[in-house]
Amino acid sequence: MRNRRLAAASSVLLLPVLVPASAAAAPTPTVVPCPQASMSASTPSRPSPPPAVAEDQVVGGAALATSGLVVPAGAAQPPEVTASSWLVADLDTGEVLGACGPHEYATPASVQKLLLTAALLPDLDPQQVVTVTKEDLDIEPGSSAVGLLVGGRYPVETLWLGLLLQSGNDAANVLARLGGGAEGRAGGVRAMNEFAEELGARQTHAVTPSGLDGPGQFTSAYDLALIARACFAEPAFQRYALTETHQIPDQEALGRKGFQIQNGNSLIDQYPGALGGKTGFTTLARHTYVGAAERAGRRLVVTLLGAEARPLRGWEQGAALLDWGFALPRETSVGRLVEPGELTAAPSATAPAAVPSAADARPAADNSLPEGLTGPGPLLVAAGVGVGIGGLAALIVRLARHPRREPRRRRRGQGHRRA
Fold first, then answer.
1. Residue 113 annotated in active site
2. What is the pLDDT of residues 172-224, one digit of tens each?
3. 315: helix, strand or coil
4. Whether 372 contacts 26, CB under 8 Å
């Protein structure tokens, strides 16, 4: 388990509790609109998301269960962006500094390649040489690709760099096939979904390894932060994410020369302390982005979904939100990123439920708790997840559909519709 904390957490977030009728009937806090930049162009209709699940909405803290803005009390107004949802968090402590609709469903586009990376990077030998098949190049015409050749032989490390620098959908197919074992590409996608569950990314479901649109494929700004945190825990990813160029090797047997690819994430060139990240775009998803940077020993990550490229491109919106996050005090928090394995840990018969402080974890314009509550109280259980009587049935359904699994053991180691 390289650089990954996969041990079961001491607290469990899936404990059903009974709440007083007065608490269950408490009024819903006011939703504070997110600061939105004006957009000159209309956007296409988005896929209909799955129904919201109450206990998923509060993963990481009760204050995160909003479709609007949540920032610390007294914090400066976040910058206006076109993204429909976003989140800023500390990569090291896991504290969430602020967010807009953190648990709202959205389509991922190529930032989904980060889930492929988090799930498979530690398991694949970077020096292994892989032969590309015709099926590996089954991608949408005009979508982003490295330019791999059928019959071409490429080191796995080159495939990772093609995936992360050039956003190669062909590289995504090869890596998913390789990581999927006997199941091939489908096995790779299954591994992605299993790893998302292990991370606690409950609103993430992958259908394609590349992020090209597929029916039922969704994620959230919160889930992307969990996935990004797992990626940045890998030294190889940290190195790949800051690589500016890479030479794709000659294919002498096919009579083809090699060529150079460049990193498409402008953050690494234009933002001081940038650590890397991933861009994405499809017609349905619009622009999506994940980026991270370090300043004065503090590492922050930003995730955003459903953005338009004007007046600011995705990475520029990410940079503005990073600036906002770095300006906040280090102890700032409106929630937290759960640890890998925490939500799937077996219940402890002796461990008491730990309730975190919610002093700063409230919607920006509503600094009071619902009427009848004086603190985190009975609506919070364990590490910040609340389950009311009304949500108990949904919880039982979730447990029936998704039985607990042991954490997966780790081994060593732009077109119009691009992803």
1. yes
2. 999 999 999 999 999 999 999 999 999 999 999 999 999 999 999 999 999 99
3. helix
4. yes
Domains of the chain, first to last: 1-419 (3.40.710.10)
The residue from 84, 85, 143, 167 that is catalytic is 167
Structural contact between residues 282 and 107, judged by C-beta atoms closer than 8 angstroms? yes
Check residue 1 and give its pLDDT. 42
C-alpha to C-alpha distance for 95 and 355, rounded to whole angstroms: 15
**Whole-angstrom distance, CA of residue 84 vs CA of residue 307:** 6
Tokens representing 163? Answer: 């995936």
Q: Which residues lie below 8 Å from residue 156, measured CB to CB, with a gap of 6+?
A: 124, 125, 126, 127, 128, 129, 130, 175, 178
Query: How many CB atoms lie under 10 A from the CB of residue 259?
Result: 12
Are residues 112 and 219 in contact, defined by beta-carbon separation less than 8 angstroms? Answer: yes
Q: Is 134 a catalytic residue?
A: no
Marked catalytic residue, from 84, 110, 144, 210 = 110
Mapped onto helix, strand or coil, the DSSP state of residue 255 is coil
Place of tokens 């607990």: 404
Cβ 321 vs Cβ 302: under 8 Å: yes
Query: What average pLDDT is seen over the chain?
Result: 81
278 flagged as catalytic: no
pTM for the whole structure: 0.78
Torsions phi, psi for 331 (to 5 deg): -80, 0
